[in-house]
Amino acid sequence: MPAIRTKGRSAALVTAAAALAFCTFAGSPAQAAAPSAAPAARSATSGIPAVVDPAADLGRHAPGPKPTWFDSIYFIGSLKANGQEFGLQVHTRILPSRAEAAYRWTFSVINKTTGWYKDYDTMVKPEDYRWSEGKLDIKAPGLSWTGDTVRQSVQVETPWGSLDVQMAPTGPAMNYASTGVFNLADGVPNYEFALPDMQTSGTLVVDGKKHKVSGTSWLDRQWGEMPTSLTRWTWMNLSMPNGDKVAIWDTIGAESKDSWATVLHPDGSYEVVDVEPLAQGASRQWTSPATGQTYPTRWRIRIPALRSELDVRVTGNPDQEIETPDGSGYLEAAATFTGKYDGKKVRGENYVEMTGEWNS
């Protein structure tokens, strides 16, 4: 059975997750926000049960009553073809308790070799969107995403390009905070797990050029209420040469500031560790000409409990912002990292997701 270790201030996150898990299984009011299926396995020797089940929770959930309740699934890939390297992202999210801008999907591609970048963002009418409960079966104009925890198929069609890939997850799933539930900000729980190592291959077409691509992807599945008091967040994924998968959350709400990481080891064990606030090591700000929002493009990340110090920087073109229906936007940028992890030199590729204003 996988083990869990907690270090530093992040132990409070696991304590909160344990309390939420207990409430869920004890039939308290928290049960209304619980996953639709019973958990398949426990994730910690401490007796804290996992509250997510990847086999069932790839499917859509019954929505909560608030308009900020969301279902989200996306993957980010690092793929190669004919001496060129691509980063790409496919994301769909729904807010079924909201009257407007409720169903949406996006697709973005950056050619890391040339710096070329383009994204596509579309709203879908509710009657034209399908996401089945209990299984991964998503259909919308221009988007098809089906499969399970063994194999998935994704097809995307846009005016400027298309994607047709097969993905096969390898290794264990990652439950964020080791249980799959944590407070995103100001005491509002979210549910999240990842399939962090997916072998990916297929065809990418951009501007009329076809590329046979192959590489790896990281899938993230998240649902719950979005805190209205959340002012900004940063999320990063880091795949280490020793097989460790590291997911960083850095959030600022009206009453809370949290910077922490879930570490999944190849044997299925976890560490939940403190991360120094990312704003302390953020630099090289870039201001979007489309939305006026400002984002850093470089970070010095320190994780004392893991003897780790990493330099992360956006790859190539910093304009990897996806605009949102309200006129704002968020950064979904391919990046690279170098530095030391557990005292050893490392390098790799990752993605950085950022929302909110970074002028201060």
Automatic annotation (TrEMBL):
Family annotation (Gene3D superfamilies): AttH-like domain
Molecular-function annotations in GO: hydrolase activity
The entry's keywords: Hydrolase, Signal
Stretch forming the signal peptide: 1-32
Top-level taxon: Bacteria
AttH domain span: 74-225
SUPFAM superfamilies: AttH-like
InterPro entries tied to this protein: AttH-like_dom_sf, AttH_dom
Keyword Signal appears in the UniProt entry: yes
A Pfam family of this chain: CrtC
Entry annotated with the keyword Metal-binding: no
PANTHER family, per the entry: BLL1000 PROTEIN, HYDROLASE
Stated name of the protein: Hydrolase
Natural source organism: Streptosporangium minutum
